[in-house]
Amino acid sequence: MALARAAARGAKGLAAAGLGAAGSAALGYGLIQLEARISRRIVGHPFDGAPEDDGIYGAAPGQPIRLMVLGDSTAAGMGADTGAQTIGAILANGLAAIMGRSVQLTNEAVVGAVSADLIAQLSRALGREEHFDVAVISIGANDVTHRVDHAVAVRHLQRTVRYLTSLEVPVVVGTCPDLGTVEPIPFPLNHLLRRWSRDMAARQTVAVVEAGGRSVSLGDLLGPEFEASPKIMFSQDHFHPSAAGYARVASAMLPSVAAAVDAWPEGAVTDSAPEPERGEGIGALDDAAQRAVSRPGTEVGPAEVRGHAHGPRGRWAMLRRRVWREVTDL
Known about the structure:
Elements lengths: L1 H15 L4 H23 L11 E3 L7 E7 L1 H4 L10 H13 L3 E5 L10 H11 L5 E5 L2 H5 L4 H17 L4 E4 L14 H22 L3 E3 L2 H10 L1 H4 L9 H18 L20 E4 H10 L4 E4 L7 E2 L2 E7 L10
Parallel strand pairs: 2-3, 2-4, 4-5, 5-6
Antiparallel strand pairs: 1-3, 6-8, 7-10, 8-10, 9-10
């Protein structure tokens, strides 16, 4: 723990010096180098890779729904015990159950990927399948931990989403998770990572919606639950989600993925008028992005007002809080 004590002493010293914003940035840059070494020692490398989850889910006649998954180790499922426990597999099984159709999952996510890697993943996926019915992307954590410039990272994400939407493939992006909840990461790095994660998530939301996709906020939805139950939600490396953690992530994304392919039964989820009492509504995209970061499970997607996609403050966006509503009339 000598490194941890050194990091703490460095933080106190800089704080006592009364450094402002520039000093905070310098503090973050210096500490991330030192504390990352601490975290890597604690986390370790217990996994050889992510389980294989490509394949057909559900048993039904007819053409399967084709689901593409892109992203980093979370999208790949590192930390899951079996291929059936990954986000992609859970989404595929969920769609198959809702639609009564089989789902073909093509997962090109790569452990350690950053946003700049998405285009190569997309190219590989399109080399395997000519067309997809829906694409799911989970990315951003490695951009944050590697200190990739956020503006650069979201440009790569936006380029990928825009290309997919130009092919008429609906896209749902799970925004950057709250890295401040990762148990081995010590103070004050965890607070810096939380701030950087939220900034990345807000920027991702704007980029995704401007490119025609939908985003789902994961950080604040997952953060408190992962923080409260780390032994359940995290895998044995204390960094990647466990099977229970992946189930929670997928449950947050499934309603939006199902809505993107018009899969929900009538009355379960609607794209009609928003419900203000549930925090839903249409507003400026930059406001929507900030609200999504601070509110769990928020979906943000493109919207129009009187036939116009843009208003005085830029792009219009729709906030939704999708839940499975009980069907009372059979």
